[in-house]
Amino acid sequence: MIAISGVLLMAAAALAALRIPAAPGIAVSIAVGLLAMVAVHAHTTLRGKFAVWAGILSGLGLKGNERVLDLGCGRGAVLLAVAKLLPSGRAVGVDIWSTSDQSGNSAEATERNAKAEGVADRVEVRSGDVRALPFPEASFDLVVSSMAIHNIRERDGRKSALDEAIRVLQEGGRLAIVDFMVVDEYVEHLRLRGMQDVELRPLGWRFWYGGPWLGASLVRATRPAL
């Protein structure tokens, strides 16, 4: 009831801002639309993104001994999911731990989550900027990232993050990025950098943040052998 009341208030505020008479039918229609957006966003946050990433990781056919890097790992949703697939491998997460990008974001929170999920022995958490990664070249078999790189405002900064992802990948290593708004830019840059099998695929309603206008896509690519 509290959520519905809040949405109705939002609808009334929208009508007032647009100077539209608060006819019951119009208010209800706006409220229903807002409720649908809230419901879709909640599903993505609580269930959808986990199911989608489970499918992405399953499709990569990991052997279980890989070294995987998660760019902008946050509290560890993807980091811990991939760690569960690495009984003899290593999952490394790097982040600047900005709480403006994700509430409660901290290395300590991620480490606690890793312990709670039973994968602390194969998870490593590092502080670092994805535009200047603290790892040597060809350190990882797979680099993943979920809804992180778009937070870099400057286009050149986002390009630097992609360049760093390529740098730390081994030959034949793979890249899997889920993001929105600027994914076409990622595809263009990865192709310019000579990455192979560059693919862009929308992820559907389970990864909508309110609606299709904020839907995420998967960008995949492979670092070629020299």
Walk me through what this model shows:
The chain has about 230 residues and is α/β, with parallel strands linked by helices. It folds into two domains: about 1-45, no CATH class; about 45-220, Rossmann fold (3-Layer(aba) Sandwich), CATH 3.40.50.150. The chain contains six helices and seven strands; from the N terminus they run H-H-E-H-E-H-E-E-H-E-H-E-E. It has helices at about 1-20, 25-60, 75-85, 105-115, 155-170, 185-190; strands at about 65-70, 90-95, 125, 140-145, 170-180, 195-200, 215-220. The chain has a seven-stranded mixed β-sheet with strand order 3-2-1-4-5-7-6, sandwiched between helices. Strand 2 (about 90-95), helix 4 (about 105-115) and strand 3 (about 125) form a beta-alpha-beta unit. Helix 2 (about 25-60) runs parallel beside helix 3 (about 75-85). The longest helix has about 35 residues, at about 25-60. The radius of gyration is 20 Å and the shape is globular. Mean pLDDT is about 85; it is low at about 1-10 and about 30-45.
